[in-house]
Amino acid sequence: MSRIIFTHETMAKTLTYCLMHFTVAIAVAYALTSDWQIALSIGIIEPLVQTVFFNMHERGWNKARADYKRRVMDSGLA
After folding, report:
1. Number of structural domains, the chain?
2. Nearest to 21, CA basis, from 3, 53, 44
């Protein structure tokens, strides 16, 4: 059951991170270039790549947390 919760939490965090990142990236690119076409190009490509890596990063942390909890429970320290 906890695996399902972590999976959905990670997906929700990834999606909200993606939306926030698109907004910031487009705004910064527009502020630097004053050109909406360039701003949208930069603001779409870069956040997509970052979102994929964020999801992998978050899944790695979730796995590390689960592994740590399992080791603690197996050692009888809990």
Report:
1. 1
2. 44
For tokens 């190009």, the residue is 41
Residue type, 57: H
Q: Among the residues of 1-78, which ranges form H helices?
A: 2-33, 36-75
- Cα–Cα distance, 19 to 36 (Å, whole number): 18
pLDDT tens digits along 40-58: 998 888 888 888 898 899 8
**CB under 8 Å to 50, separation ≥6 — which residues?**
21
Range of the domain at 43: 2-75
- Are the C-beta atoms of 22 and 43 separated by less than 8 Å? yes
CB atoms within 10 A of CB 39: 19
- For the question of whether the overall pTM of this predicted structure is more than 0.85, the answer is no
